[in-house]
Amino acid sequence: MTGDHYFTAEPATAAHPREVEFAVAGRDYTLTSSGGVFSAARLDPGTAVLLRKAELPPADTAGALLDLGCGFGPITCVLAASAPSATVWAVDVNERARELTAANAARVGAADRVRVAAPDDVPADVTFAQLWSNPPIRVGKDELHRMLLRWLPRLAPDGVAWLVVARHLGGDSLHRWLADQGWQVERHASQKGYRVLRVTR
Asked: What is the DSSP string of the chain?
């Protein structure tokens, strides 16, 4: 593979900032994206399905939420808006994505409640009430499995993970693999070729 991709730590692609507009749960968002990050030009269709079909945290949700593979931060910003008492950890290997997410969190008035970090910089003692992810399927199955095996165990005992995966990219096989690892997995919704999985202990 040549050129940058969304799992490049320090993308060399020119930034070319642009605005991405979308609406979730009756609220309009205008965020800044740029080249060198995942779905730079629009809200990714899988992310859109996840935010539309999964159960957003209620306003009284406290504790820590995790946006795993945050990109330019659409999930982070929606979680922060939905749960104003929670702290949202926005994790990505891509430095530019982290910078964009921090800027977008400030843009929606949530800078004080969003912690943007590289994976290795999240303190080991932090557990999460919820984990949200449109996981990077194209890193390959082995790397994807390692990522989920690293982060899913950090859910609180009553925590829930919401994942979206395209059916043609292995959504059903990921469902089976998670169940084989001992997780409780429910296909919560299907839309436009995507599976929304609800994962609990």
From this structure: --S--TT-SS--S----EEEEEEETTEEEEEEE-TTSTTTTS--HHHHHHHHHS-PPPTT--SEEEEES-TTSHHHHHHHHH-TTSEEEEE-S-HHHHHHHHHHHHHTT-GGGEEEE-GGGS-TT--EEEEEE---GGG-HHHHHHHHHHHGGGEEEEEEEEEEEEGGGTHHHHHHHHHHTT-EEEEEEEETTEEEEEEE-
pLDDT in tens, 150-172: 999 999 999 999 999 999 999 99
User: What predicted TM-score, i.e. pTM, was given to this entire model?
Assistant: 0.93
Taking alpha carbons only, the member of 68, 80, 84 closest to residue 131 is 68
Which structure tokens are listed for 147?
Answer: 């990522």
User: Side-chain half-sphere of 35: how many Cα atoms within 13 Å?
Assistant: 8
End-to-end CA distance of the chain: 36
